[in-house]
Amino acid sequence: MGLLAQMALNSVVQILVFAAVPCVWWLATARSNCAFGSYVGLHGVDAPARRRVAVWSVATAAVFVLVSVAVLLALGSVRSATSAFAGRGIVALPAVVVYAVFNTSLPEELLFRGFVLKRLQASFGFAVANAVQATLFGLLHGAMFASVVGVPKALLVIAFTGAIAWCMGYVNERLAGGSILPSWAIHAAANVFSGLVSAL
Q1: Number of other residues whose CB lies within 10 A of the CB of residue 84
Q2: Which InterPro entries match (predicted)?
Q3: How many Å apart are CA 15 and CA 107, to the nearest integer?
Q4: Residue 186 contacts residue 171 (beta carbons within 8 Å)
Q5: pTM, whole model, 2 decimals?
Q6: Neighbours of 90 (CB within 10 A)
Q7: Nearest to 2 by CA among 85, 89, 102
Q8: pLDDT tens, 30-81?
Q9: How far is residue 48's CA from residue 139's CA, in Å, rounded to a whole number?
Q10: Measured between alpha carbons, how far is residue 58 from residues 39, 128, 182 in Å?
């Protein structure tokens, strides 16, 4: 199977796995009140807020990319999710885009910003909910590297990804009216960058 086809298949699996809990929860608690897309924030940003959301999203994505460079340098040659693109050059771009947009960013945004943040926010308010989802997001990414890079570097990954997750939650809930499209775009842009760095 070619790389692009493999990434497409992986994306379908990832989306189904990460959307399973939000979907079941929605079916059990909110199906009669709203569509699933609205429940997890898959809706547009209101026109008056779009310019401000765009500025914040570009700024957050830029910081995300810049700090990603530092983290990649700190991790060195450790195998990561983008290692599949290593040395493949620009021909890997379609696979990188599918990986970035559908295999990683969409599933993770559905679960963390679309489900965890929104459900906790309904009970505990934005501050607590955003801190919890950011912490969980950071811990997930740190855990993936802890066994191969050691605790200090894993803590760096946790701090970086957790901080970015907090910013993405802020943009979504405080500026974009609960839409997860901004964080999806930010997340995807950073992952496209990481994939291209690996490919080139």
Answers
A1: 19
A2: Rce1/LyrA-like_dom (IPR003675)
A3: 5
A4: yes
A5: 0.91
A6: 10
A7: 85
A8: 999 999 999 999 999 999 999 999 999 999 999 888 877 777 776 666 666 6
A9: 35
A10: 25, 25, 9
